[in-house]
Amino acid sequence: MKSRSWLIVPGNSDKRLGLAIGTGADIVVVDLEDTVPVSEKPRARHLAAEWLAAHRQQVLEQPRLGRWVRINALEAGLSREDLAAVMPLAPDGLILPKSCGPDSVRQLASEVYECEQAYGIAPNSTRIVPVVGENPRAALRIADYAQSAHQRLSALTWNAAGLCAAMGRSGNRTADGGWPDAARYVRAQALLSAHAGDVMAIDAPHEDFEDEEGVRRAAQAACADGFAGMMAIHPGQVAAINAAFTPSPDELHWARAVVEVFEANPNMGSLPLNGRMVDRSHFTVARRTIGMFEREGRASEDPRRQPILRPA
Fold first, then answer.
1. For the whole model, what pTM was predicted?
2. Does the entry feature the keyword Ion transport, yes or no (predicted)?
3. What is the spatial distance between Cα 123 and Cα 90, in angstroms, rounded to a whole number?
4. Beta bridge mates, 157
5. How far is C-alpha 182 from the geometric centre of its chain's CA atoms?
């Protein structure tokens, strides 16, 4: 399944849910948490179930769209009602906001397992992506996910808003538009821990959905940093995210050449290729590029993208 763009759609918006299927997003995340007022949560659960049901057979026949749900945080006391509403429709996975650490994932996994048994869903087929580091204590425990990974763990993602609010910060950005130090720490820890635990890292969304150039730069930077995908809060962000996380034909051609030359010479630390020297770091990046292509199933046709590695 593709995993470049994760479009968050408010669960209480019938209109936006109806449009989500045609946005080009790889994964639609029906939100029952932050974008939904408390008074609207019962309606959001109902609409989420309807949406999951409407698109379930289509996805089963031709897997191409991820059907995920962001439930409410465990400590909010609403997550069991969320699960009762959506699990009968077998979502592909659940986003767990405000996760405190691996124990939160295990707690949710236990409840999900009971739901799978009750509704005849294949055991352990429902994946979990925790939102890490949304408060200072949770931020200091991000590395624990790599040390005690759960079999349902599909990726790690993060979000600056909760952390900044917990620390009493008035905004999520510095004066020059960058992330504040605590947010940069959480982002780096989420990325490192995901790679250490051999799961995907999904970057936080670009908050200004009207800033098309900003979304494009943020998505390209996320891909270059080693993220596997990026959250989106508006359909207009999807195309830029998909383009950033899809290898171009030049990237793919060069990556295959690098992999081929190292596989033919497994004991070499560096080798000449097309007039330049490549080493094991290039080999690592090349395998990641090919992995992205295999996950997406096709290469980008956008000639404007510059390859990660290009022969001299």
1. 0.83
2. no
3. 11
4. 131, 202
5. 20
Give, in degrees to the nearest 5, the angle at Cα 24 between 299 and 134.
100
Q: What is the pLDDT of residues 266-297, one digit of tens each?
A: 888 888 887 788 887 777 777 777 766 665 54
Q: pLDDT of 66-109, one tens digit each?
A: 999 999 999 999 999 999 999 999 999 999 999 999 999 999 99
The bridge status of strand 270-273 relative to strand 276-279 is antiparallel
Compute the distance between CA of residue 102 and CA of residue 117 in angstroms, rounded to an integer: 22
